[in-house]
Amino acid sequence: MAGSKENGNADVPPSPAFAQTSAFAPALRPDHSTLDLSSTTPKLSPPPTPADGEVPQFSDKYGGYGSQAYGGVQGGAEGDQLLGTGAAAGGASRYRKPGRTSPFQTLLRLLAAMCAVLGLLALLARLSFIPAAPRAKVAHHLSPYMPTTVVAFLRPASGPSAPHPIIPLLVSANDEWSKKLTSQSTTYDRATKTYKAKYGMAPPPGFDKWFAFATQGRNHSLVDEYDQLMEDLRPYRSLSPQELRRRTAELAQVPGISIVSIRNGVAQVHSKSVKWAPALAFQQMLGAFVRDLPDMDIAVNEKPEGRVLPRKQKKVYVSDYGLDGTEELAVNMSDPMLSPSLKGFIPEWKRDGSVWEAYRRSCPAESAARRLVESIRSAETNGALQVQGRSSSKPESPQTRRKQATQAWPATREMAFSHDLDASFDVCDYPSLHTLHSAFYSDQRNIEHLYPVFSPSKPSGYADILIPSHHYWSPSSEFTYEWEMQRGRTKTPTDLEWQIKKPTAYWRGKVTRGADTPPGHGASFQKQRLVKMANQASTESKRVLVSFDKETAGLSSIAAPVAVVNKATSDIAMACDPSLGECSYLRSLGYRVEPPAPLSDAWKHKFVLDIDEIGFSPRFLALMESKSAVVKSSIQREFWRGWIQPWKHFIPLSSSYSELHNIQTFFSGFPPSLSGTRGNRTVASTTLTRPHPIPELPLNADGSAFDNDKALRDIAEAGREWKTQHLRKADMECYVYRLMVEWANLVTVYDDEPEEVAA
């Protein structure tokens, strides 16, 4: 490299670009002006110059420049005129044939034209004048023939794209549901292998009869999807059959618990109250197979909410007493956790505790629920933890920031969409959820030991064993789809066709009862918050709505007063019977109150909301059977949890409801009253993003190109199909039969097991 520098031309000026981008100083270059170039450069004689007008002679058989066709002064003059050089250009130019080009020149011109066209296409593509899909196909076909750089430039731009967050949720939901359906066992041998692979043990006795009943007798398709059932039974596997039977017998003395006893293939109900409807429905579910079950007792919860919250035992180590070592101390055999008793159990809280206090005691010692509130908030803020139900910042802050804003930018939580219900969250890790739900303020006292209670629903952390609710098995009129037609009161369906439904969200519900411990928290419960949010009358604070363009996959937004948005997007109110005398009181608290309405009123709307009661929502299956799309918010787990696919069969909604309006605008666009011109003021939208590349949008259920409204209709139709094919009475029977087979295995003492002697 040094030699090449020395032989360089000294007259070449220093490179400005090089001088600006490095520390190299041009003035420090060696001076070559004194170098004698004659000693290093050979001297060559210049070539002879032909005389003016002299025609070169060639031996080319085609004549070359010496051909008569190329000679003459006229040709030279024409060449001089074309080149603009005159005589100074030399005589050779006079002998070029005018009007002709060589094949090589033609090829170069064709290539240049092609490059120009491709460049224009690529430029138009980059400016989004050409959709991504067609230009991707063109790039694919040209890739074998064009340079890589040209093809790469023509292809859609790589790099981060920004599709609407709902798009990947729809895609993954369809894929996961398809895989779940196609992976189910179709033979007993395969079902046995799947059971062993999933749970690490052999199926219990009676599994073969259950499989035959489910597949041949009831056409049950989801035979491998019983993870929720197995998770419910997991803590009880640590107890002996004798202890399980003893604890069940104790539950018979607890108010709010019914006993279903099976003796010699016959099931009977025993209850000390008149609220035995849950136990009666469970007895009916057993009817088709009870003769195949051994003798046992089942404790059925008469309440809709969970009951069992076993305390977590703190492990004690020798180091806790100042001794060396890390061994865990043996548990004292007199510990009441090993042999608990419900003697003197008080069924309700008498101002001596609450559900949340009991729940916290059931959480691990290192969980967020066991820490101080200040520490929890700090962890949520510093760790960027997005609690589904509640933000760490003040709820008014996004609206305050938008009040004077000229562009509409959504808050993070308004565009954060849940992949599943909040029931999937562990409240021990997300303690902020408890302030938003009446279940944690129930007046019903919890059982704080591991007792086998069979319940219709429970939040995470509860140890109840889930069973189908009696509201699902034999629903009343208010929880039955098309009840009027089923009872012969009308021959015309009350449900409307999709095109007639309004693109708005609908909900009616009564005030939750039995949740006032401790008192004074009703305003933060799930129903009250929904009604307040959907009926805010503020015209100062803004709400940002984001719309998705199916043609460009771009996002745009508008900001409008909260009151205007609510009126345009929802019909949500408390249902109140005037005869009860509390309607005026609810209105004084700021709630919108309407008279009770039949369930069929919901069918006028494309979006129907489903919100928890103090336990689960008993109207869920009726809503799913309708032709409307269900938007569900819940912290309650139910037996069907592993049988359904969010974003395929229903739309999950977080406990904060903050994303509700943007769920609506994704599928239905901006309401007409909020777009275009309102009065003398034009509402302009803000372009948030135009993603590159445009994502591969999912196809609609019929294979057509993606359409927002059609995608919502697909969810409604898939939910209806799910209810009629996967949550029939026959499917509930299959679930209960499988549960009884598993439970019988836990409470049966086999011949090779020693009998325990009572202490």
TrEMBL record:
Domain Glycosyl transferase CAP10: 417-750
UniProt feature, compositional bias: Polar residues: 382-398
Highest taxon, organism lineage: Eukaryota
Keywords: Membrane, Transmembrane, Transmembrane helix
UniProt keyword Membrane present: yes
Parts of the chain that traverse the membrane: 106-125
Region of interest (Disordered), residue spans: 1-58, 382-409
Pfam families with a match to the protein in the record: Glyco_transf_90
PANTHER family, per database record: BETA-1,2-XYLOSYLTRANSFERASE 1 (PTHR12203:SF118), KDEL LYS-ASP-GLU-LEU CONTAINING - RELATED (PTHR12203)
Protein name: SPOSA6832_01224-mRNA-1:cds
Annotated source species: Sporidiobolus salmonicolor
Top-level taxonomy: Eukaryota, Fungi, Dikarya, Basidiomycota, Pucciniomycotina
